[in-house]
């Protein structure tokens, strides 16, 4: 029997492989993830909403995929969501959901994929770590975030054991780059018994 994308995705080795697998997966991603109880987008959106007063400021949903994470932001009261992603096919699905103000494709390796300082809140649900994007994204997002802005993201259980991803978080707090406002471990994809930690950091 052929493997499902969920079985394949955690062995993705680089950005090009990630783009290919998400392009192929786009049409069945929502069905497969929702069937397995995908919980992280709602957890990230709820954690961010708890830290923010003005829900009308634009939020950047980085690695928006098919838009499940944007839909979760809308359900938690945010009104203006922009999205960007590596995969054109995932973006096409996101556009169909009608929850984003702007959507565009990210081309890794190019300049910062959005105007620096434009966003006071950025989310990355299921985007950074094993099965998705490299640890360098942490620095890119923190750099592009507006001062005093909030970065809400998740690390799945595989990523939580990888020092390449964990070290930047420690450096942010010890070097005074950002402070940790929220951290909670919980369900990520219950159907495959995978958890995630949701973090909210505030940039200095
Ligand atoms: C597991 S999906 C999560 C999508 C969405 N946030 C959600 O919660 O359903 C990971 C997404 O990250 C995107 N991605 C991976 N690496 C990326 C990168 N370097 N830049 C932008 N997007 C990336 C993939 O294309 C994919 O759509």
Automatic annotation (TrEMBL):
Q: Which organism is it from?
A: Psychromarinibacter halotolerans
Q: Does the keyword field hold Metal-binding?
A: no
Pfam families given for it? Methyltransf_23 (PF13489)
Leader sequence residues = none
MF annotations from Gene Ontology: methyltransferase activity
- Which protein, by its recorded name, is this? Class I SAM-dependent DNA methyltransferase
GO biological process per UniProt:
methylation
Q: Which InterPro entries match?
A: SAM-dependent_MTases_sf
For this UniProt record, give its keywords in alphabetical order, as a comma-separated list.
Methyltransferase, S-adenosyl-L-methionine, Transferase
Keyword Disulfide bond included in the entry's annotation = no
